[in-house]
Each structure stands twice: as C-alpha cells, then as structure tokens.
Amino acid sequence: MPKKIAILGSTGSIGVNTLDIVRNSKNRFKVSGLAAGGNIALLEKQIREFKPKYAALFDEKKTSLLKKRLGRLKVEIFSGIEGLIKVASIPDTKMVVSAIVGAAGLIPTFAALKCGKDIALANKETLVIAGELFMKHSRKKRVRIIPVDSEHSAIFQCINGTTNRKIKKIILTASGGPFLTYPAKQFEKITTRKALNHPNWNMGPKITIDSATLMNKGLEVIEAHWLFGIDENRIDVVIHPESIVHSMVEFIDTSIIAQMGLPDMRVPINYALNYPERVSTNLPTLNLTKTKTLTFSEPDYKKFPCLEYAFHALRIGRTMPAVLNAANEVAVQAFLSGSISFTGIPKIIKKLMRKHQPKKVMKISDIMQADLWARVEAKKLCER
Ligand SMILES: NC(=O)c1ccc[n+]([C@@H]2O[C@H](COP(=O)([O-])OP(=O)(O)OC[C@H]3O[C@@H](n4cnc5c(N)ncnc54)[C@H](OP(=O)(O)O)[C@@H]3O)[C@@H](O)[C@H]2O)c1
To answer: Are both 3-147 and 317-384 of the same fold?
Structure first.
C-alpha cells in the first residue's frame, strides 16, 4: 500500500521537489492533499497530475476561480486557514510535509501534530517561534518529526539514535551566501537581484535572502536546539562555501561524524519521506575527487549580525524568537519590494528585539500576539 502524504506549500520550492520525489517513487506514495498560498496555475497542474482527494488555497478570493478551472474533477477544495487545517488533518494521511514559508506554517503544522501525523518538517519557523510547545506536544502525541532542512537531516542521520549525553556538540555548516567575501562597506548597495543569486542552492525568495544575511543559519540554530535538545553553547556554526558537508556531530570521544552529498534538497526530502527506510534514487551523486577541496572557517558575526541576534533570541527565549522571526519576515519582504536596503534588515530586527518585553509562552496565542506586535512595529519602521 502506498504511504499517504499531504503537502502544505506544494507550489513552493520544497513542495515542487517533494512532488518530484513522489513522481519518481514507483508508487511508494499517494498524495492525499495539497495546499498552497495563491498560485492557482501550479496548484491546478499538481491536482491534475497527482489527483489528491483534498486541496486548499489560502487565498480565499482565488478559490472559486480554481474550482472553475478544475471543472468536474473529483477533488474537494477548501480555502483560508480552515482549508489548510483540513488538508493537514485528512484522516488516512500518514505523513504531512510542512513546507509553507514563514510563520504562516505554524497553525496547519500544529493541526497535523494534534492529529498524530508524522511530520516531514521544512518550515523551520514553526520550531523557531513555538519550539518548546511543539516538541512538548510531539512527545505527548508520539509524533515523529523528521527534519527536511539539509543541515538538520544531516544531524539527524549522524546522531542516529545516540543519546544526548554522548553528544559534545552539533556543528552546523553554512555556505556563507553570496556576500561571504564582500567588504562590509558595500553591503548598503546590495541589490535584490544579487541577494537572490545564491551560489549553491535554488530556493524560495525568503530563505534565499535569509541565507544572504545568515539569518537562515540563526533560525537553524534555534531549530536544532529544539529538535535535538542541545543547548546553544553546544551548537557551533562554521562557514563551508562548498555546501558538501551538510552538518556534523561531535561525540564525547572526539569523533566527528559528518553527512555529505551534493546540494540537492531532493536528498533530505527523499530521506524524510521514506524514514526509517533508506531508498535508492536516481539523483546525481557526489564525486569527491572532482570536488577536491572542502574548506571551513569561522562566521563573521560583525558583518552578519543576524546570526548573533538569533543566538541572543534563543538565550532569552520566551516570546523573543517569535519577535526575531516576525521582524525578519517583514524586513525581508520590505527589502524584496525595494523599500529598505539590505543593511536595513538587521537594523529593524535589532530595534524590535530591544523594544520587546519577552513573555512566557503558555499557548499558541501568546506567540501569535508577539508575532502580530512585531509585524505592526516592523512595518512602521520599514515605512519610515
Ligand atoms: N527551499 C529550500 O531549499 C529550503 C531548504 C530548507 C528549508 N526550507 C524551508 O521550507 C519552507 C518553504 O521554503 P520554500 O523555499 O519552499 O518557499 P517558497 O518557494 O517561497 O514556497 C512557499 C510555499 O508556501 C506557500 N505559502 C506562502 N504563504 C502561505 C500561506 N499564508 N498559506 C498557505 N501557503 C502559503 C506558497 O504558496 P503560493 O506560492 O501558492 O503562494 C508556497 O507553496 C521555509 O520555511 C524554508 O525555510 C526551504
């Protein structure tokens, strides 16, 4: 019997790569549900090819057009946040791939968790803003969370069930993004076109900008903390421009285990979908004799302050990571639309983190409140 999976964010970079794995998986998987934001052309194409029973579009205004385009096709279409929750909760679905970008992924991913689905987690923002609650519920529900982020997939594979006490530290690798060797003086003039041109990975726009500011690595530090239960002082970040070593784990006996491969998101996606089995693929393989050199260096926290802010937010905890994340989402959007400069992104995050009075997180609404506050304040700063 094929494993039934639902994909939240099916029209994005991770969603499309996931469907590519499904397409080439010789009926190991059946797509039970697809959910997207507003790209009806691509969603329609995906529905026609993968024939899910259910689909959802967040943009309610476009739903009737999607229904019209699908005509008599046998698929139930839902809309809005309720629609996303429906797709996350389809009764016979075994696994939900969480690949919506940003904090918008939190509520539907939580819905999947509450229904006891295994979660292939790409939406790191869920763990950044609600890591403690999310992991507590996953233990209670005995839900398996299998990371899709290449670094966390690497760490997951290196740890391979070893107890936390035997782990000395986690070493997260970072490509360094397109501005690794740029002088800080030129950062003010960085254009969106240049920032969207990642040297190794082909990803959605938000994560590509996060990679350029190193905020992506900061968010990953927080994600790793919650996923693996490791304190921030046992998480190191190293710059590795070749993106071949996806991350490493150092054990108490000084052994370091690394996971390597070409930078291709289909590898960790395939691993997560098939976990705990390892299944062969036709993906291109790494030839180390062609790669020749692998280099590692310390990150420059002065040039890339977002990384430091993320460590700081993790240390403070409570609602601070939610504020870091929301301020970043608004600032990245403002940079993409041309209303602030590249260096404006860390400035806005810093201002909001200084202004925020962190509160204890007891429930999701505490996070949503902090998130909303930060979005309103960040927008005001961007407009200024
Ligand atoms: N791309 C990568 O290689 C990569 C690697 C590691 C981790 N991740 C993580 O995976 C997540 C997705 O990244 P991505 O690069 O795939 O992003 P992306 O290409 O921008 O795609 C985002 C997806 O989310 C959907 N979406 C956006 N807002 C939504 C909303 N309010 N409700 C429902 N759906 C919404 C989009 O739908 P429409 O396009 O239809 O509007 C699209 O399907 C992020 O959390 C990212 O950090 C990505």
So the answer is: no
- Triad 7, 128, 316: Cα angle to 5°: 170
Q: At what angle do helices 80-88 and 106-114 cross, to 10 degrees?
A: 40
For ligand 1, the distance from its centroid to the CA atom of residue 17, given in whole angstroms, is 11
In sequence order, the β-bridge partners of residue 170 are 235, 249
Nearest-CA residue for ligand 1 atom 30 is 37
Q: Hey, which of 44, 100, 125 would you mutate to test ligand 1's pocket, going by the most ligand atoms within 8 Å of its Cβ?
A: 100
Task: For domain 317-384, give the CATH number.
Answer: 1.10.1740.10
CATH, domain range 3-147: 3.40.50.720
Ligand 1 centre and the CA of 358: distance in Å? 28
Residue range 115-126, pLDDT digits in tens: 999 999 999 999
Percentage helix, strand, coil for the chain under 3-state DSSP, each rounded to 5: 50, 15, 35
Taking residues 262-282, report their average pLDDT: 97
Test site for ligand 1: of 43, 97, 101, most ligand atoms within 8 A of the Cβ: 101
Residue pLDDT, tens place only, 80-99: 999 999 999 999 999 999 99
Domain boundaries, the chain: 3-147, 148-316, 317-384
